[in-house]
Amino acid sequence: MIIHKISELQSKLQVERQKGRTIGLVPTMGALHAGHASLVKRSVSENDVTVVSIFLNPTQFNDKKDLERYPRTLEADCKLLEQCGAQIAFAPSVEEIYPEPDTRTFSYPPTDSVMEGAMRPGHFNGVCQIVSKLFSYTNPDRAYFGEKDYQQIAVIKRMVEDLGFKLTMVSCPVIREESGLAMSSRNTLLSDAERALAANIYAFLKKSTTLGLDVQQTHDYVVENIDAIEGLKVQYFSIVDGNTLAEIGSWQDAESIVGCITVFCGSKPIRLIDHIRYK
């Protein structure tokens, strides 16, 4: 079932709740792939009703060209959702979600001010705007997010605490292509040659966990090796506390440590993100 109106979605879900059914939400921007499918299947297995939102949210794009280039594949998306067993695809228009500008501001430093927050001003504010709206419309029991967007999950967790949403956040593992490249809607914008290049990102992240280097040496190893490949350019690589996302200087500085990276690939270029757990 494809629903375009908020009122229709809420009416449908109210009926389901009155029957005592649990609701899972998978927020997406469309251009769905096997990574999204894994989230949907997880929700279907854990809830009576699964809602998948398909909405290309303009407020989280600080680069209009990036928004224009983002793939739009609604028909194919809905077919995939049907195959995965999702009951509702919520595909609203921009006017439906933003009948007037959303002037709310969200601030959760350092979680939302480093890495993507520093490189894409306003990005996480836009993420919080749309996700908080989707949570309000659906009032889900559980909401599912892919760990590829590691920082985004950390920010949304802060927002859930801040706004008092009564739901369970479910983080799902990164789904990778056979080459190791993290699945992403943006991968469709890569040529075959660029896709092969991009596989080096995870290859060097993974290799860096085996070398026994200190934090700075590990950082330099990853950046230098990826930058040495023509067609790849690291925008940032940060080794951070897995909870606060503050940068660390020593492996003893935090119980959970994650390396988060963004790399430009190809001549266009396409911006790819990934991460690796060090502990």
Summarize the structure.
With 279 residues, this protein is of the alpha/beta class. The chain folds into 2 domains: 2-172, Rossmann fold, CATH 3.40.50.620; 185-277, 2-Layer Sandwich (Pantoate--beta-alanine Ligase, Chain: A,domain 2), CATH 3.30.1300.10.
SSE layout and pairings?
Elements lengths: L1 E2 L2 H13 L4 E6 L5 H13 L2 E6 L9 H6 L4 H11 L3 E3 L3 H4 L18 H4 L3 H16 L3 E5 L3 H14 L4 E5 L19 H17 L6 H13 L4 E10 L15 E9 L4 E8 L2
Parallel strand pairs: 1-4, 2-3, 2-5, 3-4, 5-6
Antiparallel strand pairs: 7-8, 8-9
Helix pairs in contact: 7-8, 9-10
How would you describe this structure to a colleague?
By secondary structure, this protein is of the alpha/beta class. The chain folds into two domains: 2-172, Rossmann fold, CATH 3.40.50; 185-277, Pantoate--beta-alanine Ligase, Chain: A,domain 2, CATH 3.30.1300. Helix content is 40%, strand content 19%. It contains ten helices and nine strands. Strands 1-4-3-2-5-6 form a six-stranded parallel beta sheet, with helices on both faces. The protein is globular, with a radius of gyration of 19 Å.
